[in-house]
Amino acid sequence: MITDPPILTMRGSFERQPAELVRSFAGASTGHLVDAMGGAGALHWRIKPLSPGRASFFGTALTCNCGPGDNLALFGALEIMQPGDVVMAATDSYMGCALTGDLLAGMVRNCGGAALVTDGAVRDVAGILQTGLPVYCAGVTPNSPVRNGPGTAGLPVVIGGVPVASGDIIVGDADGVVVVPMAMAAEVLEKLQTVRIAEAALEAKVKGGLRIPDFAQELLASARIERLP
Length: 229
Description:
The chain is of the alpha/beta class and 229 residues long. Helix content is 29%, strand content 23%. α2 crosses α6 (185-207) and α4 packs parallel to α5.
């Protein structure tokens, strides 16, 4: 290549859902959301909160692709960030060093970020917890990254096996993180109410002593079950 490529490519302007619609996802169970999307949307199981007691969040995705061993793109995301954004930082699942520590997590909080999610590792756990920012990662290591790029901020990424675009709605709880594509947000919210009603009804029956639900009994009694002597 005759000329050096840019060390960071940024898109600061992207479509966002109305704040009222985003707030409608507050407190949603990630399990319910996955059910409302037909069993899809959850990041890889390894991506979990540093603190289960500080895990619940919702917000608008702000993506950045840092690549392995680098976090320059995180600083680009800070410049683009609006209050309530969730930093979705892709590292190609690199675990050789931390993507970030407590200082950058504090900056995300200072910029109004709702959470930081990465498929990589973090460090300075005690300090991150003190910031109060929900942080999800695939592991912890004291090794530090560099800031050389190349990277992107505001452009689509893949994290934990799930495509994420800036503007998508992100929800997290102690079970993990779910991505609700922006184009599906209204539809998912409508289906979510149906899922909640069905779950609440079955939960009440379980608390009342239910042993096997009707749908399972019908299946067990059908010709699809082979019973060996």
